[in-house]
Design brief:
Arc Repressor Mutant, subunit A, Tetracycline Repressor, domain 2, homodimer, DNA-binding, mainly alpha, 10 helices, 2 domains
Chain lengths: 210, 210
DNA sequence: TTCTTTCCTGACCATATGGTCAGACATGGA
DNA sequence: TCCATGTCTGACCATATGGTCAGGAAAGAA
């Protein structure tokens, strides 16, 4: 599982192993929560001895912190689609597309994030108060500008943002429920497209942008 | 904290203590997750010795199961507003109101439910496959009838339901994030009303019902 | 080769946790 | 009053878990 076909350089070893561990940790934290996850489980999933995890990450909390922050980065990057958009149809439409894609490709990350926030954000509270708050204020201003320009109906930008987060992340966080209601099968390509279209249609019409 | 001002009758004792324990358990499970919650923590919050919890609930999992099922009941009851409605404006409008109210009054319950589903629903999988699935199919039929009657636009009923769940529950599950973005203060009465109105306005217009 | 640095890991430890149990205590019916 | 039943709890136990550490292996510089 983790046999190295070719010998790795010193610098590569660290990067490679951290990647493997972080990937395993993301999955385990998502499935079991911080409290339910054990270093042994993560080690097994990574195919490494437990002591080796502690060589790269001093404590379980350090490892968890890294996982959450990495997710936050991905999540913020997708938000760039918001800028440089001429109006809500393009800006919000692209944002929904991007966030739905993340829900599909990184469901575990989304779950860890949700779990962290639900438990009071003990680890990333500072991020919420700085980066996230700043980003939110910025986007609110953008939406308000669109409203002032008559490009969409005068809805509360803040609650619109919450709605976008809630709706898109729901497909990751509650993926298991959705799968169960889909007869136990994961959504197909076609069904994912239908989901995206439904969300975009309802919200864009809901804010009077189409 | 738990001093009984008046002596309780035998039958009352059990009911009363179970209520206290379930209430404490809901809060602790919501804050720490199943894995992070400890019987000792729940006992302290309930003001009872740990051994007493085990007298009423054999195992931690039994206690957790009861908490999740109780939430499910509340959650289903709110869904009754859906029926007997002449059209989407009344039916979905009332459903949003009811679910937003639950998010406000029972945020812990909502979190426990979310956590359970996120971890693959190990405890209530059967509920998802029976009760929830049946309920969902029923509501899809109602929405489809409204569409056929020309009372709303032809959106995918299933994804509309997901959107309703996601948006309303977001205010409970991500309450901490919302509070942080609100300057660290919980939403006021006025802000809750604004939230409700925003959700209702966008969704009802989004499905072409107004 | 020699030496330094980094990487690796089996064995170990202190602690926390879910759960048990014997026996005390209270209640209420006969 | 006596007894059966239900309630309560301190003390205890087996186990699991996060974390440590000494010492060995490999890599690369000199």
């Amino acid at each position: 599982m983790t046999e190295a076909p070719r010998p790795l350089r010193r610098t590569e070893i660290r990067r490679e192993n951290e990647k493997i561990i972080l990937s395993a940790a993301e999955k385990v934290f998502a499935e079991a929560g911080f409290g339910g996850a054990t270093m042994q489980l993560i080690a097994d999933m990574a195919g490494l001895p437990k002591a080796n995890l502690h060589y790269y990450f001093a404590t379980k909390e350090d490892l968890y912190r890294r996982v959450v922050r990495d997710i936050f980065e991905i999540w913020l990057k997708a938000a760039e689609t918001f800028d440089n958009a001429p109006g809500p149809v393009e800006g919000i439409g692209a944002y929904i597309d991007a966030k739905m894609e993340i829900s599909r490709r990184h469901p575990d990350g989304s779950k860890v994030w949700a779990s962290e926030v639900m438990h009071g954000a003990p680890v990333i509270q500072d991020y919420l108060e700085t980066t996230l708050r700043d980003w939110t204020e910025g986007r609110i201003a953008v939406i308000q500008r669109w409203i002032d320009a008559g490009l969409m109906a005068p809805v509360d930008p803040r609650h619109l943002l919450y709605m976008l987060w809630a709706t898109t992340q729901h497909y990751a966080d509650f993926g298991h429920q959705i799968e169960t209601l889909n007869g136990g099968r994961p959504l197909s390509d076609r069904q994912w497209k239908a989901a995206k279209d439904s969300v975009k249609t309802i919200i864009l019409r809901g804010i009077g942008a189409v």
